[in-house]
Design a protein that fits this description.
This protein is an alpha+beta fold. It has helices at about 50-55, 60-75, 80-105, 120-135, 190-200, 235-255; strands at about 20, 35-40, 45-50, 135-150, 155-165, 165-175, 215-220, 225-230. The protein is globular and about 55 Å long.
Length: about 270
Amino acid sequence: RGYRISPRWKSPADLQASAITIDPVYTSGRQGCLSRLRMYETPEGRKLPSVTTILSRSNPRWESLENWKERQIALLGEDGFKQQQQETLTSGTIVHSLIQHYLTPPPDQRAPPILDNEYSDRVQCLWESVEPVLEDVSDVDVIESAVHHSSLEYAGTIDCIATYKGEKRIIDWKTSRRKKYRIEDTFDNPIQLAAYLGALYTDVRYPETARPTSGMIVVIYEDEPASTFTLTKDELEGYWQEWLKRYTDFQHVLKHGALPANPLSS
């Protein structure tokens, strides 16, 4: 996913939006949380951790997630698990690309995609799930665009900034095999959205007109209409505080190779 910004304004490509995986800075005898880090690289050679990397490595449930992965491998086999993960990743990437191309033209020039690849059936179902939501999206300012925080030095890719039902929002598209009934069911997604918005407000490449004060997470399914979870300014500010805590924990991981000890667990 390359760096792209709406033609409403021009901006220098200060970041490469395509993430690269590099060996971590702290490698001596350290595995687990620091085994691999997903980074963004600037033209000057600075490597910034992605929002998703920070959230995953600062997640207190990280070991539980690794245990779940091991159970899935035991159930499906390593090749079967890899294939399932690859299909999910590929389908999600294709859907993001379809949404991008659908929303880029003016609303009166939009057209549904034509699918002709091995993932067509699954992607078609995902598209039918999200298409009704897209009909209410207009005035697209930013789509699939890199952003970085000027002082905290992290980076990520914003899916979309646009007007949804009359209000400008930062929007994140997610695919899921399981129905999400509450925003809590989306786990770290609201924190991720707050991190992107916080970075946007410090990134000088984006004008003030591109700064929304509300957000929306859209969860896309194969077999039913997408779920939409909207977030107010106050809610995003609350999730921003959670992000700062996770960011601090990530710095602790980088320095010590583990999350801070929980004083209540002893």
